What we know:
By secondary structure, the chain is mainly β. Helix content is about 0%, strand content about 40%. The strands form 3 sheets. A 4-stranded antiparallel beta sheet has the order 3-4-1-6, with no helix packed on it. Strands 8-7-9-10 form a 4-stranded antiparallel beta sheet, with no helix packed on it.
Amino acid sequence: MVKITFKATDLEPGGAAFTASVGTLKLDDSKVRNWTWTGNAEEVTFTVSRKNAAANNAVLRFVEITVNPTGETGINNITVDNAKKGVRYNLAGQRVNESYKGVVIENGKKMIVK
């Protein structure tokens, strides 16, 4: 997921339409013309065009563009419980008792029990 924020000056006379080829382009503030694009794409094309056929021009001046490659999604604050001491597992990850013979994992170490 990628997030791109566009900050523009006031819309110039004649007006302009701002579009994206993929993803979601949302107008955050219509007075100052700030947009946020979010999507999951290798490539995106942004287009500034005339709002209507009667308009003579289409001008939009960006003052800042910020790209956040991770967007607003992420994994934070991962916690891990401590492994139980003295518990044995076979190579398939199944819990086994002390009478189990073969390769076992105990306290994070592999060992062979005969």
